[in-house]
Design goal:
Length: 153
């Protein structure tokens, strides 16, 4: 936490910001029970040998997350909390996903062997990339960037 900020309050603020909290009052707050979706900081412990550093344990209700969406889960948990003013620094140390939620992830429709067969590529890693910038290139320049990337296989 920032100097003078109690660690319990900082932990609670992180839990709120990453679940139902916002920096302002919004009229939609009264339309649902936020308790059902609220993250909770249930334990705080000091980091051994470090002054003013703590480990906060935060739990979230599964209803907060879209089933089968890793993107939604990480956006909710991590989101913009790393720029949160109540904190001097923040690091995600561990993430435990309950079996009930992990079972909602479908996984790929088939395995690596099917991909290798489609590509007729064996005995080496298969790599992918995203052309940057993702937006703003003309079709000609995007094509050039893709062409430069393709010889890598």
């Amino acid at each position: 936490p920032q100097p003078g900020e109690p660690p319990e309050e900082a932990g609670a603020a992180v839990a709120a910001e990453t679940s139902t909290g916002t920096w302002t009052t919004v009229w939609t707050d009264g339309l649902t029970s936020l308790d059902r979706y609220k993250g909770r900081c249930y334990h705080i412990e000091p980091v051994a040998g470090e002054e003013n550093q703590f480990i906060a344990y935060v739990a979230y209700p599964l209803d907060l997350f879209e089933e089968g969406s890793v993107t939604n889960m990480f956006t909710s948990i991590v989101g913009n909390v790393f720029g949160f003013k109540a904190l001097r620094a923040l690091r995600l140390e561990d993430l435990r996903i309950p079996p009930a939620y992990s079972k909602t992830f479908q996984g790929p429709p088939h395995g690596i062997q099917v991909e290798r067969d489609k590509l007729n590529k064996y005995g080496r890693p298969l790599l992918g990339c995203t052309i940057k910038p993702k937006l703003g290139l003309s079709a000609k320049n995007y094509g050039r960037a893709v062409y430069e990337c393709l010889p890598g296989g």
